[in-house]
């Protein structure tokens, strides 16, 4: 692996999904996530797998989540691959009345976005 691949993530980078993510890959998955927001806070991380900035922000966010001792105290975390599921991202923007950005973190309670951030503004602080 080259120096740049180590820094920026190369082609050999494993598409490893962290265990705390719940994937959104269908309208049913999205519906379940939004329904869950009525019982507890959820967060949706919208990620572009081809974007360097999105990869960097995701990696930093995951490191921050992994550093938390008790992840039960934070929102349920959902992950949306924007390239594979762009129509779902569009549906989220339309249904939740929030402009699409990438990367983007949406924090949702009772079916409404209560906090959101994009790019380098994404942090675990949005979850509290």
UniProtKB/TrEMBL annotation:
Name of the protein: Bacillithiol system redox-active protein YtxJ
Pfam family, one: BrxC
